[in-house]
Amino acid sequence: MTHADAHLNGAGPGAEITRTGDPDYDFGGACFDLDKPEDREIVRFVLSQALFGEATGVYCGKSLYAAGSLEAARFYVRQAKQELAHLQLFADIFRALDMKPVPAHWVVKLLSSHNNYYPLKVLMEHAIGEGMVLDIFKDLLLQTLPDSDPRVPLIKKKLRLVCREEEEHIAWGEKETRRLLAEKPWLKTPYFGLLELQMSVLPLLVRAFEKRAGNHPVLAHLPGFLAHVQRRVYQQGKELGFVPDTRPGAAKRAAAMGFGLAVFARSQFARSQSRLEKIYIAELGLS
């Protein structure tokens, strides 16, 4: 059984684990020093964003209510349990490091906001959003937390578990995104526009650390890491079929972003409606 096969069932039939727990970006051995106040502050900031992201697991309740299939309902029940377990896990990490969380950055709140419009939810929350979360966990935290600190090995063990479960969520998002694009090809343009918008606000998240980046072994990698995340996300979009192979000109990108914003704005007025109680007989194969 492969690494992917071992936990593929959580993402449902037809899903493919395209991300693994192996690092995609090399920090070159750079690590934080958890005895230095300035490094502890940076780690606290990063962990606080993760803690908020896991707290948004409550959104799974709305997704379960609006599930359009029995498969989707099973996925969101499973994800809700996992996200709440992750929330407790990160609380344990804060306690182990003797830290207190800070409020989430507005960019993180924006990128992790719930969307009642299912086509945007599976792309923005699962495929793209949780994909970037995995970048932070497996590339940043797993590499830059120092193994020499006796608290870190257990923390990394917990983070690896989270990474494996995030891979399931990404696989679900990618599978559903492909299905929706096949059913509604017009989604390609707003999907691309929203991706462009997401990538444009991402640098704002690291701006607070830019002044300290030059002489810090980890922060010096921020520009390269950010560029890596952006390249990976664009490649993901190409593989999903909504990012053009050749980057469009400014006018076409602006039009796509406008279309994406219009779809996003319309989605904010969408209401969740339950469906499973209307289709359960067919979903169970009893019709």
Overview of this structure, please?
This protein is mostly helical and 287 residues long. It has a single domain, classed as Ribonucleotide Reductase, subunit A (Orthogonal Bundle). It contains 13 helices and no strands. Helix 2 runs antiparallel to helix 4 and helix 6 runs antiparallel to helix 7. It is globular, with a radius of gyration of 19 Å. It starts with a helix and ends with a helix. The N terminus is likely disordered.
Summarize this entry quickly.
The protein is mainly alpha-helical and 287 residues long. It contains 13 helices and no strands.
- Average per-residue pLDDT, rounded, comes to 88
Question: What is the second-level CATH architecture?
Answer: Orthogonal Bundle
Rg calculated over all Cα atoms: 19 Å
Number of helices: 13
Which residues form runs of ≥5 with pLDDT under 50?
1-8
Per CATH, the class reads Mainly Alpha
Q: SS-based structural class?
A: mainly alpha
End-to-end separation:
35 Å
Output the CATH topology. Ribonucleotide Reductase, subunit A
Order of helices and strands: HHHHHHHHHHHHH
What is the helix content? 55-70%
Tell me, what's the shape? globular
Strand content: under 5%
The number of E-state strands comes to 0
How many structural domains are formed by the residues?
A: 1
Largest sheet: none
> What is the fourth-level CATH superfamily?
Ribonucleotide Reductase, subunit A
For this entry, what is the oligomeric state of its chains? single chain
